[in-house]
Design a protein that fits this description.
This protein has about 325 residues and is of the alpha/beta class. It has one domain: Alpha/Beta hydrolase fold, catalytic domain (Rossmann fold, 3-Layer(aba) Sandwich), CATH 3.40.50.1820. It is built from eleven helices and nine strands. Helix 10 links the parallel strand 8 and strand 9 (about 295-300).
């Protein structure tokens, strides 16, 4: 893969001003308020997964419009003290999968909520369990262009509201320390983590890796790959809709949302990433509202970024931030 984006010395200062609607904050305040007003009590039931060292609950919480959203709540078995916690959002097209698939955060001492993405889970992985009952106007194949000409109908308006409600749900659990709740995700999950940190004032840390949906005026059409290619296909048919489309997208652009996020943040990007170009990740990073932020660069990687190597970096960073010991405790007290 040849280099196609800005060199590192320019990325470090790249801070584009993306057009932001006058009602941006009011739009998201209304969206979150409506989601919370429609909420019902979260439900939990013990999973039948054959796991001896962790407890797993199948969680149903209310998202956008009061719609049920599914998640796995996982933590070390027998731990009685409130745990630091992490809410994890998943990549484009996959669902929460099986309860046994993503155990790295619980075995590192965290309670973990693995959140389904509404309407997704049928492109890769082991499936999802959350439908999206809301329709939309004509759209290109995929999810990004659903409702793209009206901000109220945007698919990611619903997804980001779900993310806020996921944090709300995590804060309700007795097993969780409410002062130490982080959000994380890769790719689409990274974009959702940015939104959750921007829209929820009790997020204590954010760990977005290879986030998509950032600096959309630049990255749409930059490589022709990934979810932003859906916008190109849409515009190629709906000629003349460019201004309406990019105005709607500005409400979900990670660079605009990042300005509202103040929690400490650990970002990551691959410099050969054609799905989430590094200039998009740096646009969100350089606009981040909090002063405590770090970018981890992977100069020779594409969308896979640091993979397992980066998770070690994330775990070490978050354990230090949350005042946890150098290694997970051996006891369950």
């Amino acid at each position: 893969m040849p280099r196609f984006d800005l060199p590192l010395e320019l990325l470090r200062s790249y801070r584009p001003e993306i057009a932001e609607p006058d009602d941006f904050d009011a739009f998201w305040s209304r969206t979150v308020s409506e989601a919370r007003a429609a909420a019902s009590v979260s439900r939990r039931s013990r999973s039948s997964a054959p796991l001896d060292l962790v407890d797993v609950d199948d969680v149903v919480f209310s998202g956008f419009g009061g719609d049920p959203v599914r998640a796995w709540f996982v933590r070390r078995r027998g731990v009685r003290r409130p745990l630091p916690a992490i809410v994890e959002f998943v990549g484009y097209g996959r669902g929460r999968g099986l309860a046994s698939e993503r155990l790295h955060w619980p075995v590192a001492g965290f309670a973990q909520l693995i959140v389904d993405t509404r309407g997704q889970g049928s492109q890769w992985g082991t499936g999802g369990d959350t439908p999206d009952p809301h329709g939309s106007a004509p759209a290109a194949p995929g999810f990004l262009t659903r409702g793209i000409e009206d901000p109220d109908d945007l698919y990611y308006r619903r997804v980001f509201a779900d993310a806020v409600r996921a944090v709300d749900a995590m804060l309700e659990f007795d097993e969780v320390d409410p002062a130490r709740v982080a959000v994380t995700g890769n790719s689409q999950g990274g974009a959702i983590a940015i939104a959750a940190a921007a829209l929820h004032d009790r997020v204590a840390a954010a760990l977005p890796a290879a986030p998509v949906l950032c600096d959309l005026p630049r990255v749409v059409g930059l490589t022709g790959e990934g979810m932003t290619a859906e916008v190109v296909r849409y515009l190629s048919v709906h000629r003349g809709s460019h201004e309406r489309v990019f105005r709607a997208l500005s409400y979900i652009d990670g660079a605009n949302l990042a300005k509202r996020a103040t929690a400490p943040a650990l970002f990551a990007c691959g410099h050969l990433d054609t799905i989430a170009p590094p200039s998009g990740a740096y646009a969100a990073f350089n606009h981040w509202g909090g002063a405590d932020r770090t970018m981890v660069d992977y100069p020779w990687n594409e969308h896979e970024g640091g993979e397992g190597v980066h998770w070690v970096r994330q775990a070490e960073w978050l354990r230090a931030l949350f005042g946890m010991p150098d290694r997970p405790a051996d006891d369950a007290a």
